[in-house]
Amino acid sequence: ASSLRSSPAFSVEQIAAVLDDMETHYRTAGLGMSGVLTARFEDAWDAGRIDDAEALRVQLEATPRDDHSHCDACGRSQFAGFFAETDRDAEAIRLVEEMLEGGFSCGEEPEHALSRVLVPYLRAGRLDEAKSAHLRSYRLAKDNPDNLRIVANNRVLRPHRQRGQGARPGRAPYRVARARRPQRRRALPVSYTHLTLPTNREV
After folding, report:
1. pTM of the entire predicted model
2. What whole-number distance in Å separates Cα of residue 62 and Cα of residue 50?
3. 30-64 pLDDT tens trace
4. Is residue 141 within a helix (H) or strand (E), and if so which, with residue range?
5. Fewer CB atoms inside 10 Å of the end CB: C or N, the chain?
6. Is residue 1 classed as helix, strand or coil in its secondary structure?
């Protein structure tokens, strides 16, 4: 559903029809509804229908897992991203920390989940955790072109690179920034002593 919605070639009605057809096939084959609910949740979230997405999330959590469910890592990461975007930072952080403590991982996890809780960590004043999550996430994601979204999430924080170890007076060495094309430059020391907390407008 997310792939269809990202293309202007498909109308809202066509996407809804695809989801209905998917559910029909699943029911006919006697399969569980986890995969269908996940697709409907993703579609509602991407479309900005937050109330619908929340209702589907609750329904999905109450639905038994099956062979067509997201893996534990992807499921937790997805819900963490949804919580972060709906001002439930503590819940987002809890899910990701549980995921890390349990050692859950897959093709793009935990780097995706870590990128999703950068802003929640900052808003909670947990600057050291934000720095650690950023460094781990970016290092894991940066060499895979399929991880562009994860890299973009990490670019919400942009370190001020400067000569020498100290920060420039009056300027925080780590600030919130919009995603932008990385510039080729010689690596210089980066100080992570201070972080600028994002406001809702900035993020």
Report:
1. 0.77
2. 18
3. 999 999 999 999 999 999 999 999 999 999 999 99
4. helix 127-141
5. C
6. coil
